[in-house]
Amino acid sequence: MNLHEYQGKAILRQFGVATPEGVVIEKAEEALAAANKVSEKTNCTVWAVKAQIHAGGRGKGGGVKIAKSLDEVQKFASDILGMNLVTPQTGSKGKKVNKVLIEQGVYYKGASEPKEFYMGVLLHRQTGKNMIMYSTEGGMSIEEVAEKTPHLIFKEEIEPSVGLLPYQTRRIAFNLKLSGKAFKGMTKFVESLYSAFQSCDASLFEINPLLKTSDDLIFAADSKVTLDDNALFRHPDYEAMRDLSEENSMEVEAREADLNYVKLDGNVGCMVNGAGLAMATMDIIKVSGGEPANFLDVGGTANAERVEKAFRIILKDPNVKAILVNIFGGIVRCDRVAQGIVDAYKNIGKIPVPIIVRLQGTNAVEAKKLIEQSGLKVESAILLREAADLVKKVLGN
Amino acid sequence: MSVLVNKNSRVIVQGFTGTEGTFHATQMIEYGTNVVGGITPGKGGQKHLDRPVFDTVEQAVNSTGADVSIIFVPPAFAADAIMEAADAGIKVIICITEGIPVRDMIGVKEFLRGKPCRLIGPNCPGVITPDEAKVGIMPGFIHKKGHIGIVSRSGTLTYEAVDQVTKAGLGQSTAIGIGGDPIPGTSTLDAIKLLMEDKETEGIIMIGEIGGTMETEAARWIKANGTKPVVGFIAGKTAPKGRKMGHAGAIIGGKEDTAEAKMKIMKECGIHVAESPAEIGKMMKEAMDKVVG
Q: Hey, is A260 helix, strand or coil?
């Protein structure tokens, strides 16, 4: 589950990770009060006004502004709230901004130059251990750093039996070329950050930029926090942070029906049991000259009701020109899925696009009989290759 | 010979009396698997499916000589169940449970390091050696005894490959579902090594997904050490970048973990790569015919 910047920072603060003071608002009228509140705590005279959406590259799309006066805070907050923000990560349609974070400006002038770093915490899949990945080059995309200056990316792997050790936090601070107060601040920062990562069952932390201020304080100037969905049962308070407006409404509806659905941009809808077979089915659609309109895994306990629900969700997508149902019955009984297809036809009424049904495995013969007896017009296939050919046929390729 | 499980395996079921455990244990027994008992803490001493129920894995091992365990315990308790099995001396632990938190699995991996046992899964369909033992949730009837070893990260896609192999007139030595999680107990390479060494296995099918580097590692090892024809397929060519496709493991991240990149490396390593998942069985048949011819 992805969190907004302000939510991620709230969690980080609980574990002692230093972040700038900030207040999140949903209405432009609240901007001044928010800015004043931040200033009371920090004496700041510069504020950052930041759009809260689940996508990176917000600055590039005009979703992050530095305000040097309260008038500017008001102006920027009014501009950004409600805007349709297009960033390199949102796609061309962009995302509507419903929330803005008014934050203490941390790029003030002082004794030394401010310096931006990068720090990520994630699972290193090859070793099955967590890893802190960091770089002296912050404030830009880490992919870019990896490409141009890979020697400036450092990695610190954490032994699960002992956890993050003090010499590792020191090595990080040395590699970032810090000294004095900033050095101490960084070791403390890394320690808190890793303890937060462990405690909240995160799957990704990305702090970019990680800032050393002109007076040698260390702050998470931005934060991207992704939590492990499988561990949310341990954190009901984080589950409550889910922002449904950030998610595709069809995906939300699918999740409520216990269907694993991801909306895509193609023209052939598909309904499959199992994630691997679902991806393979999408690939078959592509090989046959179509483009998958979605990923949909009905799961291991598909029954008639869920199959009907899945149909309804796929049909809501106006781009869908054909639907391919590909079920390999193991635990899932094909006749139950067939019943779902028959019911969907009856209950939805006319289904305006051709349907290709491929049922194989447990009770496939019974399933075929059920569909034949219902008099439904579906294209039926036994082998996966036949299903692929039928996709070609209905698309007219 | 086959690998991991065979007719001599003595299998126990953790989460024996639950809905899932009961259903699949019944299926396994019907297939002919030697299920010698099960574990449900608090129900020790009872009988279930005509077999003894134990409170702990240790008791089950002591009293039945079990050496293989299959786990149907809910995700919150599954990591504990795996470690209990390892501690009790189970040699092959097969965890079906889906949805175990990554933090728990990091601990499990650490716990198992150096212990004389092998974990398959979690989030997997299990392992089957046709006509000998089915220790998993796969439909038994699509399998046929033969000489093709299969290793796969996906459940239903494994069934698909098995079915194609059977229909192509070949059969399976052992089919291993290693599961789709980011931290699998057994990697693609581990499973490939087992099958390469197995006398019964003459050809191998390796089915992967986008995400991670397991298939490329295996491909490079096969290039250097492989002695049998390998057919490969990677699901997810059409998966968009950065989106989660059901399996936590299947997130496209870096450069070498896209379907295209993996398929390219596999080809360079001498693996017969199927562009379409409908061609897996056909390609395996062709590769085997060449070996014989």
A: strand
